[in-house]
Amino acid sequence: xxxxxxxxxxxxxxxxxxxxxxxxxxxxxxxxxxxxxxxxxxxxxxxxxxxxxxxxxxxxxxxxxxxxxxxxxxxxxxxxxxxxxxxxxxxxxxxxxxxxxxxxxxxxxxxxxxxxxxxxxxxxxxxxxxxxxxxxxxxxxxxxxxxxxxxxxxxxxxxxxxxxxxxxxxxxxxxxxxxxxxx
Length: 183
Known about the structure:
Strand order of the largest sheet: 2-1-3-4-5-6
Number of strands: 6
Mean pLDDT: 92
Oligomer: single chain
CATH architecture: Alpha-Beta Complex
Number of helices: 5
CATH topology: Maf protein
Structural class: alpha/beta
Helix content: 25-40%
CATH class: Alpha Beta
């Protein structure tokens, strides 16, 4: 079964292919640009994005949005994570979090899948902390500043092991179970 995935991010595409491939989904990257609404409401953001994608592609498509939710920043950046990250990058992000008084963080992925009839949502989350200093490669967004609970390494330091426990993995597992049911 072919499903379009709205992304041009090679890291995300690879991760999605590794997870969905074994359940018989051929992921077809759809690197089209969609203007995302800016909102803290991740479900509203994902709904808007998947509807725009389906309108342009005209075939079953899924989108995902992953964000960090920091209690020390009253849940921000949430749906605005990319904006925060683009402005701050790793070192300034860690400095901001340290100054908030709490290094706790929850990473959440919400997937929206539109099959022309309905939009289905799938969510995964992982709790963790922000380390004292970024660690590991910095080429995949905030992976270098997220240490999942019960681990001592950042996602960036884990390499492919991250794919076994990430918030995206958890959301994709739910999506895969849905696909199996409707095949």
